[in-house]
Amino acid sequence: MIESRAEQVKKTAMRKRVNLRDVAADAGVSVATVSRVMNSPASVAPATRERVEGAMRRLQWVPSAAARAINSGRTRFVGALVPTLDSDIFARVLANLEQGLTAQRLSLVVATTDDDPKIEVAKARALVDIGAEGLIVSGMTRSPDFHDLIDRARLPTIAISCHDPEYSMPTIGYDNHGAALAALGHLTELGHRRIAVLHGPVRNDRTRLRVAALQGQGDLSFHETALSTKGGCEGVRAVLAGYRPSAILCLSDVIAAGAMAEVQRQGLRVPADMSVMGLDDLPGSAHLYPALSTIHLPVSRMGRGVADALAGWVERDEKPHPHLLDFELIARASTGPCP
Amino acid sequence: MIESRAEQVKKTAMRKRVNLRDVAADAGVSVATVSRVMNSPASVAPATRERVEGAMRRLQWVPSAAARAINSGRTRFVGALVPTLDSDIFARVLANLEQGLTAQRLSLVVATTDDDPKIEVAKARALVDIGAEGLIVSGMTRSPDFHDLIDRARLPTIAISCHDPEYSMPTIGYDNHGAALAALGHLTELGHRRIAVLHGPVRNDRTRLRVAALQGQGDLSFHETALSTKGGCEGVRAVLAGYRPSAILCLSDVIAAGAMAEVQRQGLRVPADMSVMGLDDLPGSAHLYPALSTIHLPVSRMGRGVADALAGWVERDEKPHPHLLDFELIARASTGPCP
DNA sequence: TTGAAAGCGCTAACAA
DNA sequence: TTGTTAGCGCTTTCAA
User: Fold this and answer.
1) CB contact under 8 A, A92 and B85
2) Which one of A229, B48, B120, B125 is at 20 to 30 Å from B268 when CA atoms are compared?
3) Number of folded domains that form chain B
C-alpha cells in the first residue's frame, strides 16, 4: 500500500515537467531571478546566475514555448503555403527559407494548397490559429477570405515567385511574364517560328502569367498538361500528333525534362530535329541529355531573401518592399538553329 | 488631453487581442461556457451556443494556441528532421506526411540536417523547445545526445526510410540492404558481371546499408559521388575513365538520371552499350529516356503510414510497431542483356 | 541585485 | 446546463 502510493507519487513526479519554479527552488532563488537569467543575464549577479544555471542543467529544464508565447505574444514560427511539395520546384525555395529562418531563430511550418485558394485559406487559418507570426504564400491568387484573415490578424505576409508592386502584400520574386518572353526570344533568335508551348495547369497564376505573355506572339500552339515529367511526355505526344513544330517551349523545367525524353523516344534528335526549351533551371536541368536550355529563376536567392524580409517584418515590424529578382537566359545543348 | 487619453485607450483596445473573456462578456455568459462551446459543444444549450458563436464571429475571435497549449499540454505539431529538402526524395515523403498529419489535425514543422548528427540533435532540441509533440527522423544514425533528448522528453519518435525491429525507436521503412541486392540481382540476371556501383555520400546510413549489401558480391567497383544528377554525371566520367563495366548500378535514382544522361553524352547507347539501373523510383524516373529500371520504394505509403503511426502515438499513446514496407523491382527500358 | 505578485488566455474541476 | 475558480509556466512590473 505505502509502496504503491510512493510509486504513484514517484510516477507523478516523473510525469510532471520540470518548470521554472522547480529550478528556482533548487537554486534557492525566486522565479523572477530564473526568468532573468534567461532573458537578461546581465541583470543577475554572476554568482547567482551560476547557481541558477547549475540548477537548470541539473534538472534538465526546458522552458515551455507555450508559456513563453502566452506572455510575450511570440511563437517564433511562420507558415509557408506552397502548391505542392511533390517536386524540386518548391523544395529548393523551402530549403533556403528554412535555412534563413533558422538563422533568425524562427521555425517554419509547411502546408500545401494544391493551388486551390479554398484550401489555401483554410490552411492559412489553421496556421494563424496555432500562432503563426507570419505567412509566405505563392503567387497572387488569393481567396477574398484570405485577405480578410491577414488583415484582421495584421499578419505579416509575403507573396513569392511573382512580382507586382501594386499587390496588396509585398511580393518577392521574378517576372514570370518577362521570363516566358525571354525563353521564346531565345527560340525565335535561333530561327524557330512554329513552336509548341507546353505548360502546367493554368489555375496556377505564375503559369497563367507565363502563358499570357506568349499569347498572340506568332505561330504558337498551346498545350496544357500536368506539371510533371510525365506531363511533359504526354504533352509531346499530343503535340506530335498534330501541329509539327521545330521547337517545344516548356514553361517549366519538369515538363521539359519529360518532353525531351519523349521527343527522343519518338526517334527525333534534340536539338537537330527538335529544340526543347525550359523555364526554371532546376538543379538537374544542366545534367540532362542533352543539357537543357532554360531560363534561370533565382529561387535559392529568393528563399533567402524571403526569410530575411519576413524575419525583419515579424521581429522589427519592418514591412519589406516588393523585390524583383533577375532571371537569366541559360543556353545549353537542347536548343539549336531551326533546321 | 481628454481626447488624447481616449485615443490611447482606444488604441490599446484595438491592439489587444480579443480573448475568451471578451467573447464571454459579449455573449453574456461565463468564460467556461465559451470554452465549452469550443471543446464540447454538446454540453451547451443550443440557444446559448448560438449566442456565443455569434459573439465569436462578431469579435472575430481567434483562440490562442499558446494558452490552449499551456493548459492542455498539447501543441498539436510534430517535427520532421530530414537530410535535405533539395530533391524529390524527401519531398514526396513530406507531402504525404503533411497530408496524413493534417487529416489528424496535427501540423508539421520541417528541419533539415544535412545528414549531420550534430545538426540533427541541435535542431531536434530546438523543435522540442518549441513544443514538438513528436519527431520523425531519417535513418538510424543518431548522436548519443539525441537519444538522451528523446528519452528525457519521452518524445514519440519514429525513424523512417529504414527497417530494424531492434532499433531503439520504432522504424517505418523499407529494407535498404535487400533493395540494393534486388537491384544487383536484376543486372546479374541479365548477364552483367562487370558492374560499376555509383552511390551518394556514405555518411548517410541508408546509402551505407545499400553499399554494404553489395560489397563482396562479385566484380563490382564502387564510386562515391554527390547525391544529385550532377553527381551521376561526374560518377560516370570517373567510371568510364578506368574500369569498363557493362552496367552501372546507381543506388539512388537522382544519380541514375545523371548517369544515364552522361552515358549518352559519351556516345554510348542505353541499354545496348551500357545498362543503367536505379534505386528509389522517383516520379520522373518512368519518364526519362530511356525509362529507368529501378527498385520502387514505397515512400508515399511510408509518409502516410508514419503520419498515422505518429498521430496514434501522440494522441493515444499507442507506440507503433516497427513496420517493414515492400519494395518492388521495376524493369523498364534502361537495362538490357549484357552484350 | 533580488523577490513578491499580478497577470497572459485558456481549460477543467467543482459547485450550483 | 451554467458559473466560479484555481491553476498551467512564464514574464514583468513594482518594491525592497
Assistant:
1) yes
2) A229
3) 3
